[in-house]
Each structure stands twice: as C-alpha cells, then as structure tokens.
UniProtKB/TrEMBL annotation:
It is found in: Cell membrane. It comes from Rothia terrae. Keywords: Cell membrane, Membrane, Transmembrane, Transmembrane helix. Pfam families: Virul_fac_BrkB (PF03631). The chain crosses the membrane at residues 53-79, 117-140, 161-183, 203-227, 239-262, 274-296. Its main location: membrane. Residues 10-24 have a biased composition (Basic and acidic residues). The keyword Transmembrane applies. GO terms for cellular component: plasma membrane. It is a multi-pass membrane protein. This is YihY/virulence factor BrkB family protein. Residues 1-26, 350-371 are annotated as: Disordered. InterPro entries: Virul_fac_BrkB. Coiled coil: none annotated.
Amino acid sequence: MSLEELTVQRAERGSKPDSSEKPQKLTKLGKPSWIYIFKRSLREFLADGCTDLAAALTYFTVLSAVPMLLAMVSLLGVFGQGKQTTDAIISFLSDYAPSDVLSVVRGPITELTASSAAGLALVTGIVGALWTASGYIGAFGRAMNRIYDVVEGRPLWKLRLINLVITTIMVVIMVLMMLLLLTSENVLNVVGDFTGVDLSGFAAIWTYVRWFVLLLIAIVLIAILYYATPNVKQPNFRWISPGAVFALIMMGVSGAAFTFYVSNFGNYNKTYGAIGGVIILLMLIWIMNNVLLFGAQLDAEIQRARELHAGIVAEENIQIEPRDDTMAVKNLEKLDKLVEEGKEIRLSNDSGMNMQKTASKSKNINDIDLS
C-alpha cells in the first residue's frame, strides 16, 4: 500500500490522539518500551534517509542565511553605527565559531554593515528572508511527513499560507535569537543612549541572562517546527518534548565537539584550500539539521509506543490522523488515470503486435502452399 493510500485510510478512519488508553506520562512506558523507542528511532532515521533530508535542509538554511543576516545587521544598525554592529558580530564569532568559519563570513558582514541605507536594507532583508526561509519550512515539513509515514494532503494554497505564517514567526524568532547572541554591553549602552533609558545596571548581568532567554526561545522554535510543519494532527501543542530536549542538548554537544575537532585535528584548509571554511560551515549546519530530525524521529516513536500501549496496531505505521488528505486523494485519482492511460497504450500495442503476428503467420502459410 502506498503512502497516499495509507494517508487517505488514516484520514477516513480517524484517530483519538488524546485517548485515555494511551499512557499520558512518559514514565509509564517502562524500560522495555524506551529501549524499543531508541532502537526504532535509529532504524527509522536511517530508513527514512534523514541524512539526505538534512542535506536538503542545509541547502535551504544557506539560502536563507544572507537575507536573515541582512535583516539582523540592519536592525542593529538602527540603534548604532555600522562599525559597532560589525565589531559585535565578529567578536561573537571569534569567541564561539571555528576560525575558518569566521574567515568566510567576515567579508559579507563588513559589506552589509558598510551600507548607509539601514531602513531599506531592513525591509529588503525581511522580505527576502520570508520568501527564502519558506523553502526551509516546506522542506522541513516534507521531512516530518516522511518521519510520520504520511504524504502532504493540504491544498497548495493552504500549505503555502501556513508555511508563510510559520516563516514569519520563525524569522522574528531567529532575528531575536541573533540579537540576543550578538548583543553585548556596548550595544546595550548604544540602545540606551538611543532610547533614553538607562540600561547600565541591566547590562552588567545581561551577558549571563541572555543564555537562559536564548534557551527558552530555542525551545519555542523547535516546538513550532515539530508541531506545525507535518501533515499530522499532533495530540496537543507541547512547548517542550523529549525530542526537542534531546535535539537542544545534542546540538550543543555536537556543535562544541565539531568546533573542538576542527580547531585541533581538522586539516580542511590543506585538503580543500580556500573553500575549507565553507566546507566546515556546511558540515556544521548539516550536523545541526540531522540532530533536529532525529529529535523529531524520537517524538514520533514515542507516539508509536503510546499507540502500542493502547492496543493500536502501529507496529508498521504510526496511526496518528493526518490534518488533511485532499491532495492525497487527488494524487491517487491522477495516478489511476495515468495507470489507465498506460494500460490503454499497452493493450493497443498488444493488439497491433497480435495483428502483425497473425499477418506473419498467414504469409508463412501462403508461402508453404505455393511451394
């Protein structure tokens, strides 16, 4: 049975995602279930080709990076000079990013902040980010659909609208996260001078407080991705989930480990020459997207385990109901028509072949009679 047929079948049957028969507390799943969850998560992660999906997400991440950076730099430029903005970004990257990555982004950042048209650049950056980042949201939704064993069933106009809404929220959150990362005591002083508010007392503790605020924002960001992008009716909106917690922890661990490896053992510059920094940046983004997808896979397998505990036949496919099956039905109808057209071509060709064979046999018989 194809995924389109499974999607339509699950939509017709429906489901009860909040069924009282399912364990509401994860602690009730038990040790055997958790072992099964992690084993199945790893197996499905590889079977779904999530590493390839992460590569596609890496492409869309890079595609949206420049307009996102333009919006962020322009927004910072509203409150201060371009040089101060550049110094804040370069200072952060020099502290936390591999030196090869810094060498790649230093030039574009300097060029962006050198522009005096901050207001126009801000508008251009936001519009560009909305358009290009929607590609990432769409790709992430397709990856989530594969994880949940469904196809996209929402009509194109509805899906595009949903993706644009999600993208708008994501852009605002990402710009806010970048601002939190880059905002230093000096930048806060500039903001205070611009707004007339004394931020000197707050600036002293902001260096530490911003990491906690950033963590909360990252939780909301992942929650939106996991809940809103796939074509499945999630049981409810969770601000935090086991998959999101795992993703956050592993993003920090893997990012730190990769930076340590590149700084101490990597020889990418010797191998790739001038593009070594670009290769490192792409690999880092790819790793982060892999972690995000594995976190989503973990949440999906937890949902499967809850269904199994409730007696639902979910060994092969998770039975959570899709949000919409309109496009799945239409695609099946189109496929049926194409199959019928192909059948007609085959039958007509078979008829022609049979006629040729009959004519050939008649000719052979006539030749024998004449002889």
